[in-house]
Amino acid sequence: xxxVLTLTLLAVLALSAPAAAASERDTMRAYAADTWRSFELMTxxxxxLPSDNVSxxxxxxxxxxxxxxxxxxxxxxxxxxxGIIKRGEAYTRMARALDSxxxxxxxxxxxxxYNWYDPETRQKLTTWPVNGDPVYPFLSSVDNGWLGxxxxxxxxxxxxxxxxxxxxxxxxxxxxxxxxxADLLRGGAxxxxxxxxxxxxAYEGDDVYYxxxxxxxxxxxxxxxxxxxxxxxTVPPTHYFKMWRTxxxxxxxxxxxxxxxxxxxxxxxVDVFEGHYSxxxxxxxxxWGGSMFEALMVPLLVPEEEWGPRSWAVNHPLHVRAxxxxxxxxxxxxxxxxxxxxxPDGGYREYGVDPIGLEPNxxxxxxxxxxxDYGFGECRPAQPEPTEYGDGVVTxxxxxxxxxxxxxxxxxxxxxxxxxxxxYGEGGFxxxxxxxxxxxxxxxLALDQGMVMAALANELKNDRLQRYIAPQLERSxxxxxxxxxxxxxxxxR
Length: 493
Known about the structure:
There is one protein chain. The protein is α+β, with helices and mostly antiparallel strands and 493 residues long. Helix content is 40%, strand content 12%. The protein has 15 helices and 19 strands. It has helices at 2-42, 66-81, 87-103, 141-157, 162-170, 223-232, 238-242, 292-296, 304-307, 312-330, 396-401, 407-420, 446-460, 464-467, 470-483, and strands spanning 53-55, 138-140, 178-179, 184-186, 188-190, 198-200, 209-211, 214-215, 261-267, 270-279, 282-284, 341-342, 348-349, 393-394, 424-425, 428-429, 432-434, 440-441, 443-445. The strands form seven sheets. A four-stranded antiparallel β-sheet has the order 2-5-7-6. The mean pLDDT is 95.
């Protein structure tokens, strides 16, 4: 009898596993179909350009950016590949958007796009439509990077639009942002003198004013632009190793979040401090603010875990685990997923897990901005750790970013959010929820919805979305990732 019961149980388990997997896939397909609906609501039917965001009642913002356009293009590819829309509709949508992109005013010398446009008129914004404040014409290295990546994807995903997308993309000069002295990318440049700190261009005939800051941290979203520049030869490969894994551990750098540990290794003649932060039994390379999209937006498009088996393959899952442990255990919110998003109380704000960010006043996970300070050895004493956290703000797109590293945990978190809060509408998950009060930001953002679509397409189509761009980067970028070894490791508590 015992043998019969055992065999029966094994048979039930064997049948239930495929059924559970099918149920998960059905859930993800439904999420994708609803998320795509938000892009339909966001997109101007005449210009084909998406707004930055759309409210629950269908009011579109009167501004858009290169990033928003890029996320719309790859989300259209994703919707086509998932069978949500037909190939003809996808072609028409991308063709209309590319036609508008070709008409947008841009910086002639670099081929780079300005940061803000009116999606209805295609005009560069000079005043902010929300409050009438002046807009200084800015060329953003990271925002242009996301559009450039999407243009590469369109060329492979839709051969009929290869010429149109390629003509725009080939005019975008990524070396424009590269500072040869630092071997780093600048944050961007203005084409008119701004009130902020700026560095006038040193090149004859160039009329731009660069940001004083560089994108110096490796584990942040601007590395998509680094990859594009390295791949087309306008940025040297040494640039990849000039970016900080952590800042140095000397007292001159004691302003950072905690004192890192690590070793120094040399790649391509560049000495790299392979530093890491420690958090709850994990050693990991931090992002700038400790947020999910800084660490995990780039691998939506670039197979970093595959190309960097001793670096990104180790680090990416640790970021997911750190977010989970913070939300579920340390802060005890009952939910996790912290990343820049709409603030449920109004506006837009950065959220993250403070201890895994380089920034000294890193992105907090709650509205009260609860921070930690582990000190810096003899350079700076530690402060008492928080005994409680305030109103945590969770954004669903962070869970979707985790799909590739913990599918079960991500889907469970999303199901719990949907069960406990009014966080879902006709366009999928709203942007963020304050988990103590239950207050929800009832908007859909092109950036965040674009991350959701990319994550779902990769999960449901065996990383197909990555394959639209990876071949164009692999020859130059993969060897760099393959040679590096982070000092990350550990599995958490």
